[in-house]
Write a structure and sequence with these properties.
- By secondary structure, the chain is α/β, with parallel strands linked by helices.
- It has two domains: 147 residues, Collagenase (Catalytic Domain) (3-Layer(aba) Sandwich); 193 residues, no CATH class.
- It is 18% helix and 26% strand.
- The chain is built from eight helices and 20 strands.
- The strands form five sheets. Strands 7-6-13-12-11-10-8 form a seven-stranded mixed sheet, with helices on both faces.
- Helix 3 packs across helix 5.
- The protein is elongated and about 70 Å long.
- The two termini are 42 Å apart.
- About 7% of the residues have low confidence.
- The structure holds zinc ion.
């Protein structure tokens, strides 16, 4: 689901399965990532706007043609397929999509996703949805309050918003993705790691559009998300005490994410250069290279949302004992924003006690494209 308060029973199913299997979670029979995927797109039409999908309105200001809605959604489908091909390192393959437009009156103002799916199957003349096929149903009159609704490891997507970002996000749920979440413990102090002291923002990871970033041509998922669900590439196990070099998370390298498990909780480490990787600009964020730490589990964190995935650790610099962002870089003075820097990663020179585990992260270097760090036993 995308940016909404509404809740889907389908996505709630996630919780029991995600706790035990963070790496390469097996998909249910509704989908199978090893077969070629196919998008069947059914555009439902409002009664009042019979030519909604095919009209070609001309912008009165620029006098440019805005293009038909149908062309717009074909572009969104192409963008989403390109995104998932890239995020899976080519593991995911797609057959050409097909498009159907329902006759006027099929886009009904109601909140009935499964009725819309049924109506779409009729329009596409489908008796069932084959494994690997994703039936995408666009109903711009849907009034459920969500932009889109995917089915965890399933094969349907309901859309009220027609953008590339919404379609890409919902397909992610079909492929087995949970949300890119964030974690924050009071006063940026992670020593007390429990449900009372810490909060989870289910969509809080700015890194990708399973969280709160949007779609753009260069968009990918965090290396952690890719490792957990697709294994493209799989995360490498950390050897305590050794110096680890990690490459930029959007690069083609196999060295983009490391993992550590302690008492059922997974810790993931990746390099990020937010300035290069994000599609949207966020004020107050530190935009210099860093090591990002994401945590999957423990159980109380999953209970803080409908589909909580890996949570990026967030801090506020003003709450730390000492500043970590250099005040001067390459001879330029870097003034912090008025509210202080928002930190979503760890900079060279930092040490950080991992929440809920007796290990310490030490970051040595954060250069352009690569960083070095180690994880050692605390004490
Ligand atoms: Zn979602």
């Amino acid at each position: 689901m995308r940016k909404t308060a509404a809740v889907s029973g389908l996505i709630i199913l996630v919780l029991s399965s995600l706790i035990a299997v963070p790496v390469n979670a097996a998909t249910k029979s509704g989908n199978n990532l090893s077969v070629k995927q196919k998008i069947v797109y059914v555009a439902l039409t409002p009664a009042a706007e019979p030519d909604f999908w095919t009209a070609d309105p001309v912008d009165s200001v620029t006098t440019n043609s805005d293009g038909a809605q149908l062309n717009f959604v074909k572009m969104a489908v192409s963008n989403a397929m390109e995104f998932w091909t890239r995020a899976s390192n080519g593991k995911m393959k797609f057959n050409p999509p097909t498009f159907f437009v329902g006759k006027a009156g099929t886009a009904i103002k109601h909140c009935a996703s499964s009725a819309d799916v049924k109506s779409a199957m009729k329009i596409a003349k489908m008796k069932s949805i084959p494994v690997g096929t994703h039936l995408v149903v666009a109903n711009i009159n849907d009034n459920c309050g969500y932009a889109g609704l995917g089915a965890f490891s399933g094969n349907t997507v309901n859309l009220a918003v027609l953008s590339s970002g919404t379609l890409t996000h919902e397909l992610g749920h079909n492929f087995g993705y949970r949300h890119s979440s964030s974690l924050y413990c009071k006063n940026s102090d992670y020593a007390k790691f429990d449900s009372k002291n810490c909060s989870v923002d289910e969509y809080g990871d700015f890194r990708d559009l399973m969280g709160n970033d949007d779609w753009c041509p260069k968009a990918t998922l965090s290396a952690t998300q890719r490792a957990i669900t697709f294994g493209t590439p799989a995360a490498k196990d950390i050897k305590l005490g050794s110096i680890i070099s990690v490459d930029e998370s959007r690069s083609k390298s196999e060295n983009i994410v490391y993992q550590l498990k302690y008492k059922g909780v997974w810790y993931f480490f990746e390099y990020s250069n937010p300035q290069r990787e994000l599609c949207t600009y966020l004020g107050g964020m530190s935009y210099t290279p860093e090591i990002q730490v994401r945590v999957l589990g423990p159980n109380w964190t999953f209970a803080k949302g409908d589909s909580v995935g890996p949570m990026i650790i967030g801090r506020y610099e003003k709450e730390l004992a000492a500043p970590v962002i250099p005040q001067e870089k390459d001879g330029m003075i870097m003034l912090p924003p008025s509210g202080g820097w928002i930190l979503r990663g760890f900079k060279a020179g930092e040490k950080f006690q991992l929440p809920g585990a007796p290990f310490t992260l030490g970051v040595f270097t954060t250069d352009t494209g690569t960083a070095t760090f180690s994880v050692t036993k605390s004490g």
